[in-house]
Amino acid sequence: ADISDAKAQVGEVLEKMPPHLGRLLKFYYLNDMSYQNIAEAEQISMSTLKMRLFRAKRLFKKLSLE
Length: 66
Prior knowledge:
Elements: H1 3-16, H2 19-30, H3 35-42, H4 46-64
Helix pairs in contact: 2-4, 3-4
């Protein structure tokens, strides 16, 4: 499996996620944005961002195992 396969798989998992969570993972992992920049872009507090990213990572893991 090459990089494009992996990206496609990640994309498929992100599609299954609630948009607000999938978007955070895209910002963080694919766009290399800092927590600060993501929080500002999403207009949420740092603590909200951390909680959502935690949930998003957990959900991503669960969905990618299905």
